[in-house]
Specification:
- The chain has helices spanning 6-35, 38-44, 51-73, 77-101, 113-124.
- It is 77% helix and 0% strand.
- The chain is an all-alpha fold.
- The termini are close together.
- The chain has five helices and no strands.
- The relative contact order is 0.19.
Length: 126
Amino acid sequence: MKKRSTLLKVLSIILIVLGAFSLISSIIAVAAGRMVPEETYASLGVAAPTTFSYILSFVGSFIFLISGIVGIVYKSKQSVLIMGILLAVYYIFNIIYSATIASFSALSLIDLIFPILYLWGWYQSN
């Protein structure tokens, strides 16, 4: 019988909750972004979000949700590993993309805690 670690269970639940909130905020951002004129962004001194930013937000939301669901269901250790690697790749890409849009911050490396803990929970599972 497959036994998943408690860390994987807890982190999977957290990822599902964060994924749901992220999906809701992505939908709101797309809806609100269409109503804000370009001049508003210019007056604030920030660039308007690009279509790629919205797509990246939706993709991240779905990766969170799917990673959480796969961690809860735990059909095979291989599927959890694949989702953990996909989660890590998403975070690394997001850090690189954020560094190109704005300046790099060492605090953005804290984001890597979720994939590291997810993969550690995978490692602890039998």
